[in-house]
């Protein structure tokens, strides 16, 4: 069974096949990967086994808690602060978004994160991306992270798609030349055509979503964070996105996917965690976590949650 | 702590996120990251300018026309109020001070909305947030630059001397820019907590303009001038910053050492305090937007 604290079930329990564990040097990895992809058996376990089991975890979350204070006012203003002060009210609310979460993620893992709205999934993703520093605990990350935390590049509607891509890449820490190199590839993947050089505000929601997805998968990340972004675009693009994700699985070291679609978690992930109200409930295979989550919700697998990728 | 340092040296790729001590991130990695991503601030500011003016002739012209019209409005005002106020010398003085003042007020206005305007970028990406006010100040600076030739043309029509001392004015422009950055960082932080900060700002800057030697000179003040000047030197940062610039650029006179000292001190205080205030609240930005 899977223990609740989950950190000790990993990564030693990954079944080691006959292949001699090799150090994950870059020249070796693609060859092994190709071999793994040719095998018709469960690709996930194969993928995990080609990596060095003694390698340090790519991501290590140690007793992570995140608490923040935020206001429940929609638009906090000096005026409302004065009015509140006169009434002796406080508009600050303390949010315990995550409480004592620990887990390690080994190389080659694609971790699905499931949980209800407000469970802390997005907070966890932001903490992994370094946007929200921990209140207590510690996160260790080995490698370059690219995040697709919510839909839309959406920096500046007045700027063209290309300029927004450039800004996103530079904010990510790439050089100008590196981004320029990728811009055309991104435009092509996102199927934007001439829209790439038009202002972002002229884009449809689908186009913006496709662009955001394309940007984040083309930054050649070691670790990819994807939050509810699988719904970008039409059916055709979804297939393309899924193919790209598969391809990324072979080059990226780890992938974190937040989705309410249990079907896509099952399809794309080889491990999963279930978070509820800021606590880690379960760590296991996507199937186990999904089942436990569904039992917890007392809903059963309805067509809604099995909505296709 | 020591184990972490060892780990960092062994594995340069390893990044550790830990609680911020006393609310501040570790300075070493923070400023290294900041320097590494300065191209982002530059691009952010450049594309913002591009989007605002879209390279039209009138857009470019407006950059010069707007402060010039503003200067004319104040010139009319001053020459009506002041019996001996008119003349091209007065106009040159106003233009000289006002253009630099607009670097400060423009930087403050841009800077105050730099974080709240960052939106998704702030919420979803990890980068030193100080890049946002830095980009705003860069924008303000590049809006100031085209006004310098306008001032020089107006100065041509006066009898004020020209000299190499004028080049030293660049030092004061630099100080003013860094000073504005510090204040912009504070305003950007305030704006996150109180979204009407940027609406109050114009009133505040307007009063500040009247308190600074832009529309008046020390000589206008008559007998009380010296004592007042002393008070202003200590209490009003823009008195030394804009005063020093005007002396150099307009009058080609090197200001007294105390003016240099006050200007530098204010600049350092603003930049350090602004950075610290901003960095200590930075963590909140992602959850407050």
Keywords:
heterodimer, A: 309 residues, alpha/beta, 6-stranded mixed beta sheet, 3-stranded antiparallel beta sheet, 10 helices, B: mainly alpha, 13 helices, globular, disordered N terminus
Can you characterise this structure?
Chain A is of the alpha/beta class and about 300 residues long. In chain A, about 35% of the residues lie in helices and about 20% in strands. In chain A, the strands form two sheets. A six-stranded mixed β-sheet of chain A has the order 5-6-7-3-8-9, with helices on both faces. Chain B has about 290 residues and is an all-alpha fold. In chain B, about 75% of the residues lie in helices and about 0% in strands. The longest helix of chain B has about 30 residues, at about 255-290. Chains A and B meet through strand 1, helix 3, helix 4, strand 4 and helix 5 of A and strand 1, helix 3, helix 6 and helix 13 of B.
What's the short version?
Chain A is α/β, with parallel strands linked by helices. Chain A has helices at about 30-40, 45-50, 80-85, 120-130, 160-170, 175-190, 205-215, 235-250, 260-270, 285-295; strands spanning about 60-70, 90-105, 110-115, 135-140, 145-150, 225, 255-260, 270-275, 280-285. Chain A starts with about 25 loop residues before the first helix and ends in a 12-residue tail after the last helix.
């Amino acid at each position: 069974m899977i223990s609740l604290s989950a950190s000790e079930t990993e990564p030693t329990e990954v079944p080691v096949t006959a292949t001699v564990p090799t150090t994950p040097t870059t020249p070796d990895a693609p060859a092994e990967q190709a071999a793994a992809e040719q095998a018709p058996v469960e690709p996930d376990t194969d993928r995990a086994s080609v990596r060095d089991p003694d390698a340090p975890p790519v991501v290590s979350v140690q007793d992570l808690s995140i608490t923040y204070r935020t206001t429940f006012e929609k638009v906090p203003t000096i005026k409302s602060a004065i009015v509140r002060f006169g009434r002796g009210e406080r508009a600050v609310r303390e949010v315990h978004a995550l409480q004592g979460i620990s887990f390690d993620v080994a190389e080659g893992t694609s971790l699905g994160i499931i949980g209800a709205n407000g469970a802390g999934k997005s907070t966890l993703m932001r903490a992994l991306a370094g946007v929200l520093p921990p209140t207590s605990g510690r996160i260790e990350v080995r490698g370059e992270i690219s995040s697709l935390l919510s839909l839309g590049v959406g920096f500046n509607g007045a700027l063209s798609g290309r300029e927004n891509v450039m800004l996103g890449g530079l904010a990510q820490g790439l050089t100008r030349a590196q981004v320029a190199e990728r811009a055309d590839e991104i435009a092509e993947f996102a199927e934007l055509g001439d829209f790439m050089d038009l202002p972002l505000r002229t884009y449809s929601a689908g186009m913006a979503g496709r662009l955001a997805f394309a940007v984040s998968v083309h930054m050649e990340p070691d670790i990819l964070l994807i939050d509810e972004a699988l719904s970008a675009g039409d059916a055709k693009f979804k297939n393309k996105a899924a193919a790209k994700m598969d391809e990324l699985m072979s080059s990226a070291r780890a992938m974190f996917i937040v989705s309410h679609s249990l079907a896509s978690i099952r399809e794309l992930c080889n491990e999963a965690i279930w978070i509820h109200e800021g606590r880690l409930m379960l760590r296991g295979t996507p199937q186990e976590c999904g089942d436990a989550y569904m039992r917890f919700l007392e809903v059963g697998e309805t067509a809604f949650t099995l909505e296709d990728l | 702590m020591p184990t972490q340092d060892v780990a960092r040296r062994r594995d340069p790729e390893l990044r550790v996120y830990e609680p911020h001590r006393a609310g501040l991130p570790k300075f070493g990695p923070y400023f290294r990251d900041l320097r590494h991503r300065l191209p982002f601030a530059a691009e952010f500011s450049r594309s913002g300018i591009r989007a605002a003016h879209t390279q039209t002739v009138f857009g470019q012209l407006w950059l010069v026309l707007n402060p010039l019209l503003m200067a004319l409005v104040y010139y009319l005002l001053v020459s009506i109020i002041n019996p001996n106020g008119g003349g091209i010398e007065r106009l040159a003085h106003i233009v000289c001070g006002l253009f630099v003042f607009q670097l400060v007020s423009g930087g403050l206005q841009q800077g105050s909305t730099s974080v709240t305007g960052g939106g998704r970028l702030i919420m979803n990406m990890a980068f030193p947030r100080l890049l946002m006010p830095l980009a705003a100040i860069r924008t303000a600076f590049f809006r100031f630059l085209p006004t310098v030739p306008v001032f020089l043309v107006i100065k041509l029509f006066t009898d004020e001397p020209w000299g190499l001392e004028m080049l030293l004015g660049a030092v004061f422009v630099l100080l003013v820019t860094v000073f504005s950055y510090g204040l912009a960082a504070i305003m950007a932080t305030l704006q996150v907590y109180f979204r009407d900060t940027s609406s109050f700002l114009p009133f505040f800057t307007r009063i500040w303009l009247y308190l600074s030697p832009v529309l008046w000179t020390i000589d206008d003040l008559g007998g009380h001038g010296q004592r007042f000047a002393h008070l202003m030197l200590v209490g009003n940062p823009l008195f030394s910053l804009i005063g020093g610039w005007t002396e150099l650029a307009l009058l080609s006179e090197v200001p007294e050492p105390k003016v240099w000292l006050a200007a530098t001190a204010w600049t350092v205080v603003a930049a350090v305090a602004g950075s610290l205030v901003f960095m200590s609240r930075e963590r909140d930005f992602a959850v407050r937007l």
